[in-house]
Specification:
Shape: globular
Helix content: under 10%
Radius of gyration: 12 Å
Distance between the termini: 26 Å
Number of strands: 5
Order of helices and strands: EEEHEE
Strand content: 35-45%
Structural class: mainly beta
Number of domains: 1
Length: 71
């Protein structure tokens, strides 16, 4: 919790922050991340990392709800 998330397009500036995390019984971890919507939209390219620009790769899962478009 509190670790920064980076996108490969800007290795110097974090695009998000881990708000909560827990071990997944199937292996690995699940986390809630507060991040820039533009970085989340670009995350399909697999370029999100944890802690540093060369940190562990992150994968986004679909949200269980839709985001508001007007905020």
């Amino acid at each position: 919790v509190g670790q920064e998330v980076f996108h490969a397009s800007d290795a110097e500036q974090p695009c998000g922050l881990v708000a909560a995390a827990a071990a997944n019984p199937s292996g690995g971890f699940d986390a809630i991340v507060s991040m820039q919507t533009s970085a989340a939209a670009d995350a399909a390219d697999g370029r999100l990392t944890l802690g540093t620009a060369t940190g562990a790769a992150l994968a986004l899962l679909p949200l269980p709800y839709s985001l508001l478009e007007d905020i």
